[in-house]
Design a protein that fits this description.
Elements: H1 19-49, H2 52-68, H3 79-88, H4 92-119, H5 121-127, H6 134-159, H7 163-186, H8 190-216, H9 228-263, H10 265-288, H11 292-301, H12 305-341, H13 348-365, H14 367-375, H15 380-404, H16 406-433, H17 438-465, H18 468-471, H19 479-500, H20 506-524, H21 526-534
Helix pairs in contact: 1-7, 1-10, 2-6, 2-9, 2-10, 3-4, 3-6, 3-11, 4-6, 6-7, 6-8, 7-8, 9-10, 9-15, 9-16, 10-12, 10-13, 11-12, 11-14, 12-13, 12-14, 12-17, 12-19, 13-16, 15-16, 17-19, 20-21
Length: 535
């Protein structure tokens, strides 16, 4: 068994390596970038129409529905995997069975989810000090039920590796959401308006997504194609993935419940601002591996284990370089971003951003192992690390929040993420790749971390030499100038150090140039380029 990526033949994005994987990543990047901009703009707009208490309640309602969604026993996690596998062999009858069986389940599940939510509303609201949100909660539950069906239909395009179409649908629906948010909030409906808008958008997503599936792939239809055995098999796969979803919920949501119970609902708003920004940071490198599950599922169906291994190392390398750069820059610019994005009054969010950025960053760097394991039908690697995360995170957050407030909860989350991610990497390398985790730490992660640390210290040193730059943080419209200067310093130093440390090779540079070239060609001739890739 080889021990690292250097012993593999060079992989070119546009040659030997799967071109479709990279192009799908490009489309995912476009979609997530759009989502990032939309959320970035809507958050301060919503905060202007809701006070910190109402915004905290809105956040908690989303946590509740995410929790109830776990009752689907992980079925939602299985669609991409199964559709991808059946599409590899052009078995459309099986795909129809997957979709109809899923639709039947989620129709019944939606009724159950809404009923459970309304049944536990009173004790739940009492425990977390929520009042006068009953109607809002009902619409949020309905929205969640419809959204599950829309996501299932969207899985068709993701499973078939048509990320161009899936992201196009998501962008269209986000525009509907923007318009609805503005209309309802300007109409003075507050949280209720947001909830009604969410339900309307979810229903529209179901209709638009299914219509696009039918027009794009006429062989897919919703006749009576229920397959009990297949549904049971999907549940078997999904239950393992469900543990990962539970860990995600605990990791990214439960700390808000702990803060609400210990510090009050208003504190949730400050934590949410910090969590939301670091979640954006986390989402960018995750896009780079978002196409790994269908891609490795296809390779697994072809029994090409060596290509799977190469794909994992290459994805890990690029994700690590991007993640370290983002973590370093977010830590440096946390104060500037908060002051420019939200304005005065949210200074408490700054330290939360800096603490969470570290934990979220380490979590992302284990993402390639998680996605590859899921793609090849071995989700137990991520499942076991998630169990560890689910145990350690709430315990550490509860203990530390008593001593250090919201910063303690953030610290507990970050420590738990670091421990769980290291466990994931160790088990994945030992039990699937058959080598030591040291290969990825040494060959993929060490040099970017060193380069990012040195680049960060270089920017801090420049601040000491030119203190006038820091003074720009006190004038909101001048903050982008300060951030731009810091970026102009940080980015070149980071890249030069990566080259000097021989982490970025000529092949990497050619791959990057090829991807950028495709991006420009796609923006100029989108229809032509899509036909060339997906013909």
């Amino acid at each position: 068994m080889t021990s690292g990526p250097e012993q593999n033949p060079p992989i070119s994005f546009l040659g030997q390596f799967s071109q479709k994987l990279v192009i799908n990543t490009f489309f995912n990047m476009l979609g997530r970038s759009w989502s990032f901009v939309v959320t970035l703009l809507l958050t301060p707009y919503i905060l202007k129409h809701l006070d910190v208490g109402e915004f905290g309640v809105w956040v908690l309602l989303s946590v509740f529905t995410s929790s109830f969604n776990l009752l689907d026993m992980g079925l939602g996690s299985s669609f991409v995997k199964y559709i991808s596998t059946y599409h590899t062999h052009e078995d459309y009858d099986r795909i129809n069975e997957v979709l109809f069986s899923g639709l039947l389940f989620y129709t019944l599940f939606g009724v159950l989810l809404t009923s459970i939510g309304m049944a536990v509303e009173r004790p739940l609201f009492s425990w977390f000090h929520i009042s006068e949100a009953s109607q809002v909660f009902l619409f949020v539950l309905i929205s969640c039920s419809l959204q599950n069906i829309a996501i299932m239909f969207l899985s068709v395009f993701k499973g078939m590796q048509r990320m161009d179409k899936s992201n196009a649908i998501e962008v269209k629906m986000s525009i509907v959401n923007i318009v609805g948010t503005v209309v309802f909030l300007e109409g003075g409906l507050g949280m209720l308006g947001l909830a009604v808008n969410s339900a309307v958008c979810s229903f529209a997503a179901v209709v638009v997504t299914w219509w696009t599936v039918r027009t794009s792939m006429p062989k897919i239809r919703l006749g009576w194609n229920f397959n009990r055995a297949l549904l049971k098999e999907m549940f078997g796969y999904g239950v393992k993935m469900q543990v990962s979803r539970l860990g995600g919920l605990i990791c990214f949501q439960v700390d808000k419940l702990i803060i609400s119970r210990s510090l009050g609902i208003a504190a949730v708003s400050f934590y949410e601002v910090g969590s939301r920004l670091t979640s954006f940071m986390r989402a960018v490198p995750l896009v780079m591996i978002s196409a790994l599950i269908p891609a490795t599922s296809e390779l697994g169906a072809r029994n090409d284990r060596e290509k799977i291994r190469q794909t994992y190392y290459l994805a890990s390398k690029w994700v690590c370089m991007m993640t370290v750069a983002l973590v370093g820059f977010v830590i440096l610019e946390a104060r500037s971003v908060v002051n420019f994005w939200i304005g005065r009054g949210f200074e408490n969010s700054i330290v939360l951003i800096q603490i969470l950025a570290i934990g979220y960053g380490v979590n992302v760097m284990g993402g390639a192992a998680s996605q590859t394991g899921a793609g090849v039908g071995r989700p137990e690697f991520d499942m076991k690390s998630t169990v560890l995360l689910a145990i350690t995170n709430p315990i550490l957050s509860w203990i530390l929040v008593q001593q250090f407030g919201a910063a303690g909860a953030a610290t507990g989350t970050s420590i738990a993420m670091v421990v769980a991610s290291m466990y994931l990497l160790v088990t994945f390398h030992k039990k699937y790749l058959g080598n030591s985790v040291w290969t990825v730490l040494r060959d993929v992660q060490f040099r970017p971390i060193l380069a990012g640390t040195l680049a960060g210290f270089a920017v801090l040193g420049f601040h000491r030499v030119v203190p006038q730059l820091l003074a720009l943080e006190h004038v909101r419209y001048l903050i982008p100038i300060k951030m731009a200067v810091d970026f102009v310093l940080f980015a070149p130093i980071y890249v030069v150090l990566l080259i000097a440390l021989r982490h970025v090779t000529k092949i990497d540079w050619n791959n990057f140039i090829g991807l950028v070239s495709f991006g420009f060609e796609f923006l100029r001739h989108p229809a032509r380029e899509r036909v060339k890739i997906y013909r």
